[in-house]
Write a structure and sequence with these properties.
The structure is a single chain. By secondary structure, the chain is an alpha/beta fold. It has a domain of about 140 residues: Uracil-DNA glycosylase-like domain (Uracil-DNA Glycosylase, subunit E, 3-Layer(aba) Sandwich), CATH 3.40.470.10. Helices cover about 30% and strands about 15% of the residues. It is built from seven helices and seven strands; from the N terminus they run H-H-E-E-H-E-E-H-E-H-E-E-H-H. Strands 1, 2, 3, 4, 5, 6 and 7 form a seven-stranded mixed sheet that branches.
Length: about 250
């Protein structure tokens, strides 16, 4: 690198006068600055255009001209509560039964009047005739007190049909343990229903009841007096069963 101009910092003695153009400081020309190209602006993500939800139009019924004139109000539908059917309690059955013994047979007889038999009662006289026809003693012995149902006039104890059946069967079972029999006569619908677990269709038939053994279902004494034609069916059924207690009596 060569020295182009040299300028003293102090004035030199005996020096020639300096030229003013030499005192001007020549600065180098500035180099051209390369301008960087602007970066392309990043494109913003385009958001999808969401269409506004369409409002559902609810059609409101307009009142008719007649209703506006009369001032009638629209009837609102009211939901009806389900109707719960109440089950009526079953009333307790009512009956009176008397247990009798004739020979080796036991007789559970419906008392028509609800009271014990009297010697001159028509129902008792008919019973004596039936025993003579069957070849059994016609003066039966009374076994215990009459069975009357319901047991209590008031109270919360169950006195329905099932309770009555259990009570009657339990009463007879206890008597059978004391003195067994070869055949149990059930005379009258209450005796057939609550001791034999049967109904009127079983009249004049022999049934097998658990815990009681062989039983014979018969119509009631009062029914036999009102409908004498039933006696023929009783006699035919009696002839089929008669051999059983006759052999026992011999």
């Amino acid at each position: 690198m060569q020295v182009v101009n040299w300028l003293p910092r102090t004035e030199l003695p005996f020096a020639a006068p300096s030229r003013p153009e030499l005192l001007e400081l020549q600065l180098p020309e500035p180099l051209p600055v390369a301008t960087a190209a602007p970066a392309p602006a990043a494109q913003a993500p385009v958001e999808p255009q969401v269409k506004p939800a369409e409002r559902v139009k609810i059609e409101v019924p307009r009142p008719s001209l007649a209703s506006t004139r009369t001032g009638a109000k629209p009837v609102e539908e009211v939901e009806q509560a389900p109707i719960v059917a109440r089950v009526a309690p079953v009333p307790p059955p009512r009956f009176s039964l008397q247990l009798l013994r004739a020979g080796r047979c036991l007789l559970l007889v419906e008392l028509p009047t609800g009271e014990a038999f009297q010697t001159r009662d028509p129902a008792y006289l008919l019973l004596k005739d039936m025993l003579r026809a069957a070849g059994l003693p016609d003066s039966p012995q009374i076994v215990g007190e009459p069975v009357r149902w319901p047991l209590l006039a008031r109270g919360t104890m169950d006195q329905g049909p099932e309770a009555a059946r259990d009570f009657v069967q339990g009463f007879i079972s206890a008597r059978l343990e004391e003195a067994p029999c070869v055949c149990l006569w059930l005379i009258g619908l209450p005796a057939v229903r609550f001791a034999g677990e049967a109904n009127a269709e079983s009249f004049n038939r022999e049934l097998q009841v658990e815990g009681l053994g062989s039983v014979w279902a018969l119509p009631g004494l009062e029914l036999l007096m009102e409908e004498p034609q039933r006696k023929a069916d009783v006699w035919q059924a009696m002839r089929r069963l008669m051999a059983r207690w006759k052999e026992s009596n011999e």
